[in-house]
């Protein structure tokens, strides 16, 4: 008994002292400083920071078995698994640097797009969406660094529905059914059920992989009211990572004790000492070297890259794998002569292989105009207290972008049973701030109508998101200069039958019907009329369609620019990630998704890396 009391006291003392005042003060200064820098940061316009100072022949960087371009969601796990084999010599080339104390903080994600960890892309001016944004351009955040886009993302862990993968296989991709990929998802996952409200369907999970997953850990009257509104309509708490995905629940995310576990932290930092893995950071790959052998076959033999403003060349004995993500991968391929013949000729690039690279860009259109005011007030404290809580693993700074809950539903536009086509995210913890204007490139009048009317700690937002997007956009080259950005056109809400916008409208109606059931927190729609939609009756159907065009951007889940399938006229890689018609060259990242999934891309990208490692080990060991 005495021992027990002693133990409890010791623990209490330990808890109180585990984060010292000095540490809190230091971290507060650091974080406030970084946040201020980000608030004043500008998006880059190009990659000229890599441009070589002199026009000299490249320096020889040596020979490797595998060269992986890009240390993102897919490249990091792939490099980890391949370098488990001592016989494989692996070079992982990454444009950016390493994660830091700032990228660990979930709450500041919105700001991180104005740091060096974001490439800096915007869409070309849009015709049907992004209309409420300056110059009709939406921002397209893409991560740069060891961890890729997980350095600047929300870390939500949702794999997708079984039907997504069964469809993927049915396009002519053997080995891609749900039954095939489920064990691969499970291999990487470390699920931690830290919230009793979370339904975890255990046969679909693992607790001991490398990728940590936990739930938004608590609840509050407002979030409870949101759950209850959906329950009153006959839905239940659901595991969004099981086949019974439809329903709602607390947000599952790759977070450990309140800190982001980006894919660099999960898969690369622990293995930096492996002698057979070279991680070459701050290096931009400018070209894949593709040669013709005696038989006239195309073979990838290495890459040129630029580091410290000098050009290098590295050779691959076995394979070059492009994991640059859905925007950069098509750019690198096209710069190397692999892409649509006509487009490459326009840019005076020698065509080596005519393939539909960049022709099918898809994303999850998301509506950012549903802000609700309530009488529940988020606890307000001095910033230093938030930091103390964060360092102890809880509190508002541990919540990614304020997101706390999510739900999946099927609208009348989806005919497959139990197959969700609509996601609605729930967020609070300061649903509005002056910074939002910059974060989304909003026009003043858009910000004034949608965000300014709300009181930050007394509101929440919902983001209705289309899962099975019909609109198709593109990634093209602006020029043949590797230091220029590519042209990104989502062509949002452009599908013939306008199903994408109609699905968002279903989401808006659903969200508003829940608001009516949230009397416990006196919830009411908090937005004012958008001047751009002046001619329509406020909140009429026509009004909402106008608003959809104004503030629909997307969830930043670009996929499909090098889709997987058998026919080289329609697809870029085959079911084993091989680029059609080019030997020893593969693409593995979100660009190979043949369609959007009913989930968030990080978990599927990690699965792709695991799957390719299995394929390569089988072939080369
Ligand atoms: C704001 C935001 C929030 C998001 N939230 C979520 C979420 O909650 N859950 C989720 O699952 N997904 C989320 N996503 C999407 C998800 O993070 C990405 O879809 C996923 O990380 C993509 O993985 P990838 O392997 O395709 O590419 P990336 O992770 O983008 O990796 C590509 C890597 O290649 C590098 N690279 C590119 N070109 C070159 C070159 N020429 N030379 C050298 N290196 C190069 C890049 O710097 C980068 O590190 C979010 C994205 C954003 C922007
Ligand atoms: C990008 O270009 C704009 C307009 O030319 C310029 O105002 C801005 O400073 C540039 N940003 C950077 C980071 O170079
Ligand atoms: C990161 O934060 C931790 C926790 O406060 C601190 O111990 C560490 O020194 C910080 N690292 C750097 C590089 O500042
Ligand atoms: C769980 O993860 C561990 C570690 O990766 C792995 O050995 C095990 O096979 C996984 N279990 C399942 C059921 O996938
Ligand atoms: C990343 O690159 C920089 C040089 O650009 C180098 O100083 C640093 O050591 C590299 N980091 C690691 C962990 O290799
Ligand atoms: C890329 O490397 C090849 C092979 O060494 C070399 O011939 C070519 O000049 C390099 N390109 C650039 C732009 O340095
Ligand atoms: C970068 O290049 C400069 C010369 O241009 C050289 O002085 C410096 O040592 C190089 N730095 C690294 C980390 O290679
Ligand atoms: C939320 O907004 C209030 C101001 O309304 C501010 O005092 C508080 O610090 C903010 N919370 C966070 C976590 O930034
Ligand atoms: C509910 O909110 C409305 C306006 O949003 C306000 O007029 C009303 O007084 C509130 N009622 C309660 C009980 O808080
Ligand atoms: C919020 O409003 C509801 C009525 O809609 C009321 O019952 C509740 O007491 C109010 N809560 C607070 C904290 O004011
Ligand atoms: C909401 C919105 O802007 N929808 C438009 C999507 O694009 C189609 C045609 O491409 C238009 O008819 C819709 O008005």
Automatic annotation (TrEMBL):
SUPFAM superfamilies: FAD-linked reductases, C-terminal domain (SSF54373), FAD/NAD(P)-binding domain (SSF51905)
Domain Glucose-methanol-choline oxidoreductase N-terminal positions: 325-339
Residue positions of the active site: 557 (proton donor), 600 (proton acceptor)
Organism whose genome encodes this protein: Brassicogethes aeneus (Rape pollen beetle)
Swiss-Prot/TrEMBL keywords: FAD, Flavoprotein, Signal
UniProt-listed InterPro entries: FAD/NAD-bd_sf, GMC_OxRdtase, GMC_OxRdtase_N, GMC_OxRtase_C
Residues that hold FAD according to the record: 149, 285
Organism placement in taxonomy: Eukaryota, Metazoa, Ecdysozoa, Arthropoda, Hexapoda
Family: Belongs to the GMC oxidoreductase family.
Protein name: Glucose-methanol-choline oxidoreductase N-terminal domain-containing protein
PANTHER family linked: GH23626P-RELATED (PTHR11552:SF158), GLUCOSE-METHANOL-CHOLINE GMC OXIDOREDUCTASE (PTHR11552)
Molecular-function GO term, any one: oxidoreductase activity, acting on CH-OH group of donors
Cofactor: FAD
Signal peptide: 1-18
Gene3D superfamilies the record matches: FAD/NAD(P)-binding domain, Glucose Oxidase, domain 3
């Amino acid at each position: 008994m005495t021992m027990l009391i002693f133990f409890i006291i010791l623990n209490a003392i330990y808890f109180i002292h585990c984060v010292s005042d000095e540490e809190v003060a230091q971290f507060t200064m650091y974080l406030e400083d970084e946040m201020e820098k980000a608030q004043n940061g500008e998006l880059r316009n190009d990659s000229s920071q890599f441009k070589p100072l002199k026009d000299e022949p490249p320096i020889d960087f040596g020979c490797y078995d595998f060269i992986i371009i890009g240390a993102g969601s897919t490249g990091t796990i792939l490099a980890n698994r391949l370098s488990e084999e001592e016989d494989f010599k692996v070079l992982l080339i990454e444009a950016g640097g390493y994660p830091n104390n700032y990228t660990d903080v979930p709450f500041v994600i919105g700001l991180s797009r104005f740091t060096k960890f974001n490439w800096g892309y915007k869409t070309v001016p849009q015709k049907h969406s992004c209309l409420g944004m300056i110059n009709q351009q939406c921002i397209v955040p893409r991560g740069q660094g060891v961890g890729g886009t997980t350095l600047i993302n929300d870390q939500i862990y949702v794999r997708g529905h079984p039907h997504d993968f069964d469809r993927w296989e049915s396009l002519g991709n053997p080995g891609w059914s749900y039954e095939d990929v489920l064990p691969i998802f499970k291999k990487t996952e470390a699920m931690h059920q830290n919230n009793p409200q979370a339904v975890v369907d255990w046969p679909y999970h693992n607790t001991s992989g490398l990728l940590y997953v936990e739930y938004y850990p608590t609840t509050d009257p407002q979030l409870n009211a949101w759950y209850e509104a959906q329950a009153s309509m006959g839905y239940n708490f659901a595991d969004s990572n099981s086949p019974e995905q439809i329903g709602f629940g607390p947000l599952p995310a790759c977070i450990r004790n309140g800190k982001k576990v980006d894919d660099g932290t999960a898969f690369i930092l622990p293995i930096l000492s492996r002698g057979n893995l070279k991680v070459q950071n701050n290096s931009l790959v400018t070209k894949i070297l593709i040669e013709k052998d005696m038989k006239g076959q195309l073979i990838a033999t290495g890459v040129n890259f630029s580091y410290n403003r000098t050009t290098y060349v590295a050779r691959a004995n076995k394979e070059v794998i492009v994991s640059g993500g859905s925007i950069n991968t098509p750019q690198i391929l096209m710069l190397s002569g692999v892409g649509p013949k006509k487009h490459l000729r326009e840019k005076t690039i020698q065509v080596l292989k005519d393939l539909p690279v960049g022709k099918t860009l898809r994303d999850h259109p998301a509506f950012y105009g549903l802000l609700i005011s309530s009488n529940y007030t988020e606890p307000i404290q001095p910033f230093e207290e938030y930091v103390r809580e964060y360092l102890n693993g809880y509190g508002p700074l541990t919540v990614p972008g304020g997101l706390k809950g999510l739900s999946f539903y099927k609208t009348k536009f989806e005919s497959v049973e139990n197959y969700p086509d609509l996601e609605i995210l729930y967020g609070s913890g300061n649903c509005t701030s002056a910074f939002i204007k910059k974060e989304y490139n909003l026009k003043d009048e858009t910000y004034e109508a949608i965000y300014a009317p709300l009181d930050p700690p007394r509101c929440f937002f919902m983001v209705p998101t289309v899962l099975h997007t019909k609109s198709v956009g593109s990634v093209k080259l602006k020029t043949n200069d590797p230091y220029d950005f590519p042209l990104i056109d989502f062509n949002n809400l452009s599908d013939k039958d306008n199903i994408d916008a109609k699905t968002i409208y279903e989401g808006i109606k659903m969200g508003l019907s829940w608001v009516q059931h949230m009397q416990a927190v006196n919830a009411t729609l908090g937005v004012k009329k958008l001047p751009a939609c002046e001619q329509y009756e406020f909140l009429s159907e026509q009004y909402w369609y106008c608003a959809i065009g104004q503030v629909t951007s997307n969830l930043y889940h670009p996929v499909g620019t090098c889709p997987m399938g058998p026919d080289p006229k329609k697809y870029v890689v085959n079911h084993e990630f091989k680029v059609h018609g080019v030997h020893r060259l593969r693409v593995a990242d979100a660009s190979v998704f043949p369609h959007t999934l009913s989930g968030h891309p990080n978990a599927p990208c990690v699965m792709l890396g695991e799957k390719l490692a299995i394929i390569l080990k089988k072939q080369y060991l």
